[in-house]
């Protein structure tokens, strides 16, 4: 691919969105020509989306009887056009990426909380959309659980490639939600705004409702200043937080993949990005390309301004959510310190995470990281698969995963069959297949003590 991702940045990706999904939403909403039309249309769409549970459900999919003909035609055309994998998809690489995700298990979840999500909040415009969409800094668990509800179906075995998987079905739902967000914030099809057929909506409009869609519709949007909501630049950056930032985090923990495995992981997520509607030119094929594109997008994004800055609120809410799950007061700042370690000083400053941390906690964190890296370097000379850092990170990820994602009282919003598969996979992560048996025995004892304490 060479320099293609960087060349694509020269053609205003902030003013490009997703024609397929945007046109679908516009057709659906235009079909309900009344003051309550948007809400009626969204209700119909949500009902139909609930039927997309597995990839097999998308094959020859038809709208429910009684669905208005125009809406049925729009949704059926969307499924036909959007559900096919690209011709460049490599099933072997996707399968290898699935294996790597399962091998990393709880480490993957820890990196989601302390690397991917924090980096996702760095772009002011992207954070602004999250802020606009219902004050999500006050409902952080919703954002985290929504993200997990997409990641698991994509990365579980066969998620993108088999009829029994659910990755394609879940991603197509997210893609249509993004288009709905764009349409409601702009109060029209984004293509009409970019083409100059309709003026961008800047002034807010009062609404009587208080739901998510009412909030999106009520807020104004300055397209000339911020580009389109959920535009190609933001989508490409978000994709990078899922694959590049994850892989970079493994390097930061001293447990990186082999280069060929890194490329397989990037490839699988790029296939997911295609289904999500991201342009091929904005997808890196290697870690070198991904690193360059990531820094270019962050540099471009940081030049934008959003007042008041929503990023510290989003970052602080995420850290507080994790701190609430840590029982020992002296360790509650560990998520902040781990995020600072994985994301660096600039991101920490953007999110307001560069505040002072108590000296005992700071020293404990440095000692933990220093000792684990030193032990790993020494023991791996004799036991290549050994990783104390992996064990510590798994312990962090285990608590966050079980308490925040696998709660029986608040299960992830997934079809019951898929939710059972996710629960089975997570419980299988209690044993690390890459660790020596004595490490698994020790982790089992620690897990037992955690359950007793809970």
Automatic annotation (TrEMBL):
<dbReference type="InterPro" id="IPR018713">
    <property type="entry name" value="MPAB/Lcp_cat_dom"/>
</dbReference>
<feature type="domain" description="ER-bound oxygenase mpaB/mpaB'/Rubber oxygenase catalytic">
    <location>
        <begin position="137"/>
        <end position="373"/>
    </location>
</feature>
<keyword id="KW-0560">Oxidoreductase</keyword>
<protein>
    <submittedName>
        <fullName>Oxygenase MpaB family protein</fullName>
        <ecNumber>1.-.-.-</ecNumber>
    </submittedName>
</protein>
<dbReference type="GO" id="GO:0016491">
    <property type="term" value="F:oxidoreductase activity"/>
</dbReference>
<dbReference type="InterPro" id="IPR037473">
    <property type="entry name" value="Lcp-like"/>
</dbReference>
<dbReference type="Pfam" id="PF09995">
    <property type="entry name" value="MPAB_Lcp_cat"/>
</dbReference>
